[in-house]
Specification:
Blueprint lengths: L5 H9 L8 H13 L4 H12 L5 H14 L2 E4 L2 E4 L7 H15 L5
Antiparallel strand pairs: 1-2
Helix pairs in contact: 1-5, 2-3, 2-4, 2-5
Length: 109
């Protein structure tokens, strides 16, 4: 099986629109969802690993704030966690989360 790129993995979800219509923001959400609870630094490291490039810390903070404001991500103390479920097709969301797990080298839960 040929592994998909980050863009190919996220494209069906980005098309759905809303707050997750931005590829970087969607990737950040999926990293938080896959990790469970995580710090800002862990999110940054995982997003950089998944994309293979450096991510501007200000961009990460901006997108995390939008995710927090939308309720898709919550924050308790210094840790972020997935919040409410997005209004997306569950099977597409699960497939994208599985792809992110693979990109990050984590076994599927």
């Amino acid at each position: 099986m040929v592994e998909k790129t980050v863009g190919e993995l996220l494209e069906p979800l980005v098309r759905e629109g809303g707050v997750l219509a931005n590829e970087l923001r969607l990737l950040i959400y999926l990293v938080v969802r896959v990790r469970g609870r995580c710090t800002w630094s862990q999110i940054l490291a995982d997003v950089e690993k998944a994309t293979g490039r450096r991510v501007n810390p200000n961009a990460l903070s901006f997108h995390l704030k939008l995710l927090l404001d939308s309720g898709l991500v919550s924050k308790e103390s210094a840790e972020y966690a997935a919040g409410r479920e997005p209004a997306l097709k569950p099977e597409i969301l699960a497939q994208a989360a599985e792809g992110v797990r693979t990109l990050l080298g984590r076994d599927a839960a």
